[in-house]
Amino acid sequence: MLNNLESFLTVENIYFFANWGVLPFWLMLMVSPNEIISRIFVHSIIIPLLLATAYSYLGYLIFLEKNLFEVFNLYFGLEELYAVFSDEKFLLIFWLHFLALSLFVGAWIARDSSRNMVPRFLLIISLIITYFTGPVGLIIYWIFRIFFAKKITFNE
User: Fold this and answer.
1) What angle do the packed helices 135-149 and 120-133 form, to 10 degrees?
2) CB count in 10 Å sphere of residue 115
3) Which of 41, 78, 87, 136 is the most exposed place for a label (fewest CB within 10 A)?
4) Are 129 and 140 spatial neighbours (Cβ–Cβ below 8 Å)?
């Protein structure tokens, strides 16, 4: 049974399920950000926990194959960063990192837009941009938020 699971958990399958797996949660944030189902799945620890499990599994595979600390070479220049990303497991770890953090930011945007009564249309625009570009979407939301919160704040 464990061998079957191990053969199923390939880098390609993890990538496929992580990419397609987060889409329903982004749609929940856009369509029903304050409903109970969104609060259970998107605004809780469930999705980050699933992504962290895949992240940890990939880290374990890297540990079995080579020195896990090679990832710290990425701080020594672009060539080293390129070398780290040439390994598909490291690349997928960073992609999971991006998926988890951008979904976390999207959930925060949805909660904050509800508190500040930002219109749904502007929320959806912000969430789409956050899904594709992360921090740029957050800045665009912040600009929208200024007009509805009637104040400029640099911290929450």
Assistant:
1) 160
2) 10
3) 78
4) yes
**Residue 10: exposed, middle, or buried by beta-carbon count in 10 A (0-12, 13-18, 19+)?**
exposed
Q: Which of 65, 53, 58, 24 is nearest to 41 (CA)?
A: 24
- What is the structure's pLDDT at 78? 84
**Alpha-carbon gap, residue 44 to 39, rounded angstroms:** 6
Please list the rounded mean pLDDT of every run of 10 residues in the chain (156 residues).
70 93 94 91 90 91 76 77 84 93 94 92 96 94 87 65
pTM for this prediction = 0.85
Residue pair 89/11 in contact (Cβ under 8 Å)? The answer is yes
Q: Residue 36: what pLDDT?
A: 92
CA distance 109 to 79: 35
Running DSSP on this structure, what letter comes out for residue 68?
G
- Interior CA angle at 110 toward 105 and 112, to 5°? 90
Q: Which of 96, 147, 95 is nearest to 118 (CA)?
A: 147
How is residue 142 written in tokens?
């912040």
Backbone phi and psi for residue 91, each to the nearest 5 degrees, phi listed first: -60, -45
pLDDT for the residue numbered 153: 66
Distance CA 115, CA 146 (A): 13
